[in-house]
Specification:
Blueprint lengths: L9 H29 L1 H11 L2 H7 L4 E2 L10 E2 L3 E9 L4 E9 L8 E9 L3
Antiparallel strand pairs: 1-3, 2-3, 3-4, 4-5
InterPro entries: Coa1 (IPR014807)
Protein name: Cytochrome c oxidase assembly factor 1 homolog
Amino acid sequence: MMWNRMPLPLGKRVLFSSVVVSGSCALTYYLIQKAFSRASYYELVLEQLHSHPESLEALCTPLNINYLHLTDKYNFVDIASTQLKIPVSGFKSEGHLYVSSSRDAPFQRWHLQDVFLNLKDG
C-alpha cells in the first residue's frame, strides 16, 4: 500500500527551519563559550583573580564569572596572544576583567601580561 504524503505548507516549513537554525546557533554559541572557559589562558586569569585579596574584597563572594560577549571587539584570540574582557560580578559589585596574555610559540604555556579589574562603581 502506498501512502500519499501531502507536502508541508510553506508556513510550517519556515517555522520548522527557523527553530532548527535558532537551536543550532544557540548550541554553537554555548560550545564556543565552553571552549573559552576551558582554555589555559582563561584558567590562568581566574586563578589570578581568586588569589588577589583586594579584588575578592571589592567584588565580595560568591563570584560569578559570566560568559564572554563574543561580539565585543576587545576580545581577541590568536595562536600567540589573547586579549579578553571577562564580565565578573560578586555580591557587592560587578565589572570587567581585562586580560592580555601571550606565549612564545604554539603549544607552549601562556603567560599573563596584564590583568586589570574595572568595576562599574569605580
